Amino acid sequence: MNLKSVLTTDTVNLHLKGKTKDEIIGELLDILVASGKVTDRAEALSCVLDRERKMSTGMKHGIAIPHGKTDSVSDLVACIGISDNPVDFDSLDQEPCRIFIMTLSPVSKTGPHLQFLAEVSLLFKSAEKRQDILSAKSKEDVIKILTSVEG
Fold first, then answer.
1. β-bridge mates for residue 130, sequence order
2. pLDDT higher than 50, residue 29
């Protein structure tokens, strides 16, 4: 799995406006729909919210990774959004989130989905990298930070 092949400037938003978990999920989904990566928004939303009901995808350190498996995508797709304001996401550490990465993959493919989630969670173990993402001035900077090996 290669983040460079999944993330593009079309799938990065530096200023999410949502104030709730559901609003953020909707905004992230809109990014994927607008970039042509999701064919059925309602179906994709349903699978992400269903996954979220089972267990929150709010991780630690202000990061949430809402995800799901849906036939409204043909391959693994992902987007990243940064919120100007912290949003309560029922995180493991009870801290609000500002960095959101949504990924969707086809129901029939498990490998890439798990690999992506593992790769993303490794990236954010670095406090420096998280801070770099939050202070990024452009979509290109976000992609560069996420795809750089060090950190």
1. none
2. yes
